[in-house]
């Protein structure tokens, strides 16, 4: 089966990991800081904290945002369930707002309508790698004294109005799952524009430990002393995986270029296929596409999905609207809340897209899809 996404690991990546395995640090060592510094360079110089997954990054970001039980978090439903689940697990009330019909990103007008005096966080999701409308969303959160979070699991390497993802929101989260643009096998990161939020994130990902005597309540216990002032978790990304991440970030420009090349070829060769809508791109956005999401019209998505998979082409659907999951259904969320997102879901299909996809394999995807639809 041709996968819809796939990691790209070279001998240089393997050598970087092997070097750490032969060294003195498997975790909490110099590779962690080196990875965070290199990631910061891609995030417009904003400092970051690495964590064990994109889900952990969201959890840490909500903690850094000061989310408390009863606070509301406005977000779109076209996302993986972790965006909402991590807010709920902290006691937040998830409020779903509808999406733009062409990008599937959070619609600022819908977000504004969903906000109340209890709104603490607005979370945008850069669906498929296309940044959300951050200028409009920042106006909303600024007026409401809310925190703007960017779920940028899909959009590392993307730009919005010539500004890199990582500089657009108060807190930005990345994922380094194998299908993402850069991988650490499992891993994630949180970028913060506010040093206090960054410090909160760094502390929470390390059990909440306070090691600086100047910040301790009982600093005279001895050199071994450490304290926990508020509880955290072990979300530390180890040096072994950070070494892979450093090597991968060294190829991000290459990954970005290859993905853009494949996207342009899809755009050109699928432009006239009937019953198909291609992904939109705003003129002021330069996306690093994680997904190539087409929309199959006329109620044929299920048919096309089944026939493409039968032909050995691993198309995918991203995503079921988050509140359709039984866990949210059991909390009282009901279908019909976000009709634009629900319609988008019924048509959406992700075509294979990754740096290792050859033009020959891409042509096979295009030919099979065209044959089915014509």
UniProtKB/TrEMBL annotation:
Biological processes annotated in GO: polysaccharide biosynthetic process
Enzyme Commission number, as recorded: 2.6.1.102
Cofactor(s) this protein requires: pyridoxal 5'-phosphate
GO MF annotation list: GDP-4-dehydro-6-deoxy-D-mannose-4-aminotransferase activity; pyridoxal phosphate binding
Pfam families, per the entry: DegT_DnrJ_EryC1
Keywords assigned: Aminotransferase, Pyridoxal phosphate, Transferase
First-tier enzyme category under EC: transferase
Positions of the catalytic residues: 180
The keyword Transferase is assigned to this record: yes
InterPro entries, per database record: DegT/StrS_aminotransferase, PyrdxlP-dep_Trfase, PyrdxlP-dep_Trfase_major, PyrdxlP-dep_Trfase_small
Positions carrying N6-(pyridoxal phosphate)lysine: 180
Lineage top rank: taxon: Bacteria
Similarity comment text for this entry: Belongs to the DegT/DnrJ/EryC1 family.
Protein known as: Perosamine synthetase
């Amino acid at each position: 089966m041709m996968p819809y996404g796939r990691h790209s690991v070279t001998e240089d990546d393997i050598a970087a990991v092997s070097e750490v395995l032969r060294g003195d640090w498997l975790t909490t060592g110099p590779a962690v800081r080196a990875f965070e510094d290199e990631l910061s360079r891609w995030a417009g110089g904003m400092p970051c904290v690495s964590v064990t997954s994109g889900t952990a990054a969201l959890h840490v970001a909500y903690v850094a945002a000061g989310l408390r039980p009863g606070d509301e978090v406005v977000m779109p439903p076209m996302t993986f369930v972790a965006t909402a689940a991590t807010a709920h697990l902290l006691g937040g009330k998830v409020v779903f707002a509808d999406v733009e019909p062409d990008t599937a990103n959070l619609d600022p007008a819908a977000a504004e309508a969903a906000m109340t005096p209890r709104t603490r966080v607005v979370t945008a999701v850069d669906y498929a790698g296309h940044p959300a409308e951050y200028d409009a969303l920042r106006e909303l959160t600024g007026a409401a004294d809310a925190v703007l979070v960017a779920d940028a699991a899909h959009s590392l390497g993307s730009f919005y109005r010539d500004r890199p993802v990582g500089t657009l929101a108060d807190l930005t989260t990345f994922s380094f799952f194998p299908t993402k643009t850069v991988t650490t096998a499992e891993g994630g990161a949180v970028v913060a524009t506010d040093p206090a939020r960054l410090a909160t994130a760094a502390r929470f990902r390390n059990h909440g430990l306070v090691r600086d005597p100047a910040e301790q309540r009982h600093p005279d216990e001895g050199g071994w002393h450490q304290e926990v002032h508020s509880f955290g978790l072990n979300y530390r990304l180890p040096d072994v995986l950070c070494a892979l991440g450093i090597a991968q970030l060294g190829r991000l420009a290459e990954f970005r270029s290859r993905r853009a090349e494949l996207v342009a070829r899809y755009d050109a060769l699928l432009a006239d296929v009937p019953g198909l809508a291609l992904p939109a791109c705003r003129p002021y956005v330069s996306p690093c596409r994680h997904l190539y999401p087409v929309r199959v019209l006329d109620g044929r998505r299920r048919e096309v999905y089944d026939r493409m998979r039968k032909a050995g082409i691993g198309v995918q659907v991203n995503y079921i609207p988050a509140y359709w999951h039984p866990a949210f259904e059991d909390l009282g969320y009901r279908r019909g809340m976000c009709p634009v997102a629900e319609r988008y879901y019924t048509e959406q299909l992700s075509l294979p897209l990754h740096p290792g996809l050859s033009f020959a394999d891409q042509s096979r995807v295009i030919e099979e899809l065209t044959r089915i639809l014509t």
